[in-house]
């Protein structure tokens, strides 16, 4: 049991420091391994001696209980763990010589805000206040760039070039990319830097450093939970119950594709390593295109 715990700890270290995965990805993968270990324990099976048959039973249980995208992530965690453990000599790889299903394609997002939804959302903050300007700037930048929530929270002042409207982003696995944004987002970032950030840094400069977005708390740190809360607050005011920061990323990609942007360009802007991940947004627009066809094509209108 002690050896098994040590191996799991070393696996997390490998993912973080050798593979360079983000903290959230490492946490998710190690949690997946812990779940398998907990499932095996009542059966008196060991994580490092699991049989191929037991592994398939576990995967069948996951398939019955979780969505395809979740099963795909958990399968990736298991395959990565056993491939690493086998190389390090801790155990045999139960996946060796088999052809388990590849990671399943992601489901399309359940909720994609329309352009009108986004306009309504962005109009909610009271921009006569310091926090209102900050909130408007955050949501404008999320929609203008398609940043992930963690990417936005890690943006620092030196990552920006407002003159060229470029932003350096550190994405998943510490992969860096350059993205761009439009004039509207530029206007709000300028205003935030002029009006809000000086107030939010008062007495906190030593703690907040060069982070772009701050909170009016003792630490000055804007956390993910605070970011989620502000988006949900303004979304509720706009009558959009399902909104999260990631919804703005979905909207960014979907609206680009609906307006003719090349899929490869969207992939680059989102920071996806594989084009297949980006193609989920083509599924999101199928109904949109069908509605347009039914509305405008003379032979598509229902009788």
Domains, number? 2
Outline the low-pLDDT stretches. 100-105
Mean pLDDT: 84
Summing up helix and strand content along with how strands pair, one would put the structural category as mainly alpha
Binned strand content:
under 5%
Number of helices: 15
N→C terminal distance: 69 Å
Q: How many beta-strand runs?
A: 3
Biggest sheet statistics: 3 strands, antiparallel
Helix content: 55-70%
Encode the helix/strand succession as letters.
Answer: HHHHHHHEEEHHHHHHHH
Q: Going by CATH, what is the homologous superfamily of the largest domain?
A: Intergrase catalytic core
Q: In the CATH scheme, what's the topology name of the largest domain? A: hpI Integrase, Chain A
Rg over CA atoms: 23 Å
Query: Major sheet: order of its strands?
Result: 1-2-3
Which architecture of the largest domain does the CATH hierarchy give at level 2? Orthogonal Bundle
The CATH class of the largest domain turns out to be Mainly Alpha
- Tell the overall outline: globular
Describe the structure.
By secondary structure, the chain is mainly alpha-helical. The protein has two domains: about 1-85, DNA polymerase, domain 1; about 115-290, Intergrase catalytic core (hpI Integrase, Chain A, Orthogonal Bundle), CATH 1.10.443.10. About 60% of the residues lie in helices and about 5% in strands. It has 15 helices and three strands. A three-stranded antiparallel beta sheet has the order 1-2-3. Strand 1 and strand 2 form a beta hairpin. Helix 2 packs across helix 4 (about 70-85), helix 6 runs antiparallel to helix 8 (about 185-200) and helix 6 (about 130-145) crosses helix 11. The chain is globular, with a radius of gyration of 23 Å. The termini are far apart. Residues about 100-105 have low confidence and may be disordered. InterPro entries: CB, DNA_brk_join_enz, Integrase-like_cat_sf, Integrase_catalytic, Integrase_recombinase_N, Integrase_SAM-like_N, Tyrosine_recombinase_XerCD. Keywords: DNA integration, DNA recombination, DNA-binding.
């Amino acid at each position: 049991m002690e050896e098994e715990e040590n191996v799991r700890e070393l696996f997390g270290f490998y993912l973080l420091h050798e593979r360079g995965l983000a903290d959230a990805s490492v946490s998710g993968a190690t949690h997946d391994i812990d779940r398998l270990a907990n499932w095996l324990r009542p059966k008196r099976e060991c994580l490092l001696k699991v049989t191929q048959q037991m592994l398939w039973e576990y995967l069948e249980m996951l398939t019955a209980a979780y969505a395809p995208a979740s099963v795909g992530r958990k399968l990736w965690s298991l395959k990565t763990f056993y491939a690493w453990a086998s190389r390090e000599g801790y155990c045999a790889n139960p996946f060796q010589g088999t052809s388990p299903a590849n990671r399943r394609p992601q489901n399309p997002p359940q909720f994609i805000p329309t352009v009108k939804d986004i306009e309504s959302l962005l109009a909610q903050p009271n921009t006569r206040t310091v926090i209102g300007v900050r909130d408007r700037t955050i949501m404008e930048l999320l929609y203008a760039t398609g940043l992930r929530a963690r990417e936005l929270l890690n943006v620092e002042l030196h990552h920006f070039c407002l003159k060229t409207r470029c932003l350096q982003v550190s994405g998943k696995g510490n992969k860096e990319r350059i993205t761009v944004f439009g004039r509207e987002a530029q206007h709000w970032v300028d205003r935030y830097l002029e009006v809000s950030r000086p107030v939010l840094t008062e007495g906190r400069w030593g703690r907040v450093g060069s982070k772009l977005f701050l909170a009016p708390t003792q630490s000055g740190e804007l956390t993910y939970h605070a970011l989620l809360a502000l988006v949900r607050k303004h979304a509720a005011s706009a009558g959009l119950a399902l909104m999260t920061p990631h919804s703005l990323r979905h909207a960014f990609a979907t609206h680009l594709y609906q307006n003719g942007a090349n899929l490869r360009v969207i992939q680059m802007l989102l920071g996806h390593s594989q084009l297949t991940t980006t193609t989920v947004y083509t599924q999101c627009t199928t109904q949109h295109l069908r509605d347009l066809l039914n509305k405008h094509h003379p032979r598509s209108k229902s009788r």
